From TrEMBL:
This is Amino acid transporter. Its main location: membrane. The keyword Transmembrane applies. It is found in: Membrane. Residues 26-436 form the Amino acid permease/ SLC12A domain.
Length: 464
């Protein structure tokens, strides 16, 4: 497919028409909260069950890959803040077809994810209030966050600020309690030593296959970090905001993800069925005899799910608006009212709710197709980020070196290393039956979008 330079100023015009209502405190907490998703609180249980204590290694490996991706994205976003983020960078580096593919694939991922998060949050509410219909809770959450995002970007920022503060507070408290328990200082507990790390089959009880399953589970738990670079375009100081968020990503990932996994597998036997049934955090607090642990963590998970819904409606609407501004979608979606792309917010919310309805109407075919199609989208996006950075860095060094506020480490070596890492994850997905189907469906979606984008690119070049 041919490469064509894209006009960068188009997305900057979009950024000018959008409100710049996000403050630095909002951006900082969006970046911080984006690291702590529902996948960490619940989804990590399956990874622990498969990998045992070696889940710590799995999260460390995937965390390193995510750090490299965020550093690359941060370099490009600090040099060229854009509401379309990596889609804009891919268009400038590779061509319009690449921006089209990355942007619409990510929009599709976010919209389906909104539906999934709504279903998860509704299940918690029906657990507290039996007899209430799940769809009604999902509809309520959709209305709240659709309304929040329709009003003004500062409303989104405030919601995310407090959601993130609650998540950070909860996980910090969990880590504090966990460390005290490991040291044997927590009242009523004895120091576990290394019994849970080396017993019951050792550090890698299921061998390399278990580690691979844990690695794949951990890779997809990191989704959500990209939102901060989309939000940066609507902040008071986009360049400084992105630079700060990216530079602190390393310790956040190490502390929240890798630290949490280390605490959990040290305190709780990895084979405990409660780790999967209740989630690893609830299982750990129950194991320590913390009263009301289950309900406390359910509240935290609910906040994490609602936070993700809010962020995904925001991210989907901004990505759609940016794509339309670059001639990559229906013009109606790109209309901005009062600094907010309200049509894009409405369409993204409706699409998310439609996914929820499909989970009731067609759970075994259409809904499963949707789930499989989004299975590896985040990896496709990361691939576009890495290739774009590889190409744009040379251009920046040659034309605008002063814009390199954030620099990718050891360029181009670590960029190539990240691409090799992504290729390895694709290969591992192809080897595992559960993830192979997702790979096929995501591959089909990506190819369809790439073909559509290429046809549009050729048609546009002929008109020009």
């Amino acid at each position: 497919m041919s490469r064509t330079s894209a006009p960068a100023p188009v997305d900057q015009q979009v950024g000018a028409s959008l409100s710049h209502g996000l403050k630095q405190r909002h951006l900082s907490m969006i970046a911080l909260g984006g690291v702590i998703g529902a996948g960490l609180f619940v989804g990590s249980g399956a990874g622990i069950a498969a990998a045992g204590p070696s889940i710590v290694v799995a999260y460390a490996i995937s965390g390193l890959l995510v750090m490299l991706v965020m550093r690359m994205l941060g370099e490009m976003s600090a040099a060229n803040p854009a509401s379309g983020s990596f889609s804009v960078h891919a268009e400038r580096a590779i061509g319009p077809w690449a921006g089209f593919t990355a942007g619409w694939a990510f929009w599709f991922l976010l919209c389906v994810a909104v539906g999934l998060e709504g279903i998860g949050a509704a299940k918690i509410m029906t657990g507290w209030l039996p007899g209430t219909p799940e769809w009604a809770w999902v509809a309520l959450f959709m209305l709240v966050f659709c309304g929040t995002n329709l009003a003004a970007v500062k409303n989104f920022g405030e919601f995310e600020f407090w959601f993130a503060a609650l998540k950070v507070g909860a996980i910090a408290l969990f880590l504090g309690i966990g460390v005290l328990a490991i040291l044997g200082i927590l009242p009523g507990t004895d120091a576990p030593g290394t019994a849970n790390l080396t017993g019951e089959g050792g550090f890698m009880p299921n061998g390399s296959e278990g580690l691979v399953v844990g690695l794949l589970a951990s890779v997809f738990a990191y989704g959500g970090l990209e939102t901060v670079t989309i939000a940066a375009a609507e902040s008071e100081h986009p360049v400084q905001g992105v630079a700060k968020a990216v530079r602190t990503a390393m310790w956040r990932i190490a502390l929240f993800y890798i630290g949490s996994m280390a605490v959990i597998v040290t305190l709780v036997p990895w084979g405990d069925p409660k780790v999967v049934e209740k989630g690893p955090y609830v299982a750990t607090l129950d194991h320590l005899g913390i009263p009301g642990a289950g309900q406390i963590m359910n509240m935290v998970v609910l906040v994490a799910l609602l936070s993700a819904m809010n962020a995904n409606v925001y991210g989907a609407s901004r990505m759609a608006c940016s794509l339309v501004a670059r001639g990559q979608g229906p013009k109606a979606l790109g209309k901005v009212f009062g600094g907010v792309p309200r049509t894009a917010v409405l369409v993204s919310s409706v699409f998310g709710f439609l996914c929820v309805l499909l989970s009731y109407w067609r759970p075994n075919d259409v809904f499963m197709w949707l789930l499989n199609m989004i299975g590896a989208v985040i990896l496709v996006v990361w691939f576009f980020i890495a290739v774009s950075q590889l190409l744009l860095r040379r251009q920046l060094e040659r034309e605008s070196p002063e814009k390199l506020v954030v620099k990718m480490w050891l360029y181009p070596g670590l960029t190539w290393a990240a691409l090799v890492g992504m290729a390895a994850v694709f290969v591992l997905m192809a080897r595992e039956p559960d993830t192979r189907t997702q790979l096929y469906y995501t591959g089909g979606l990506t190819l369809a979008l790439a073909l559509a984008g290429y046809v549009r690119q050729v048609a546009a070049s002929r008109k020009g």
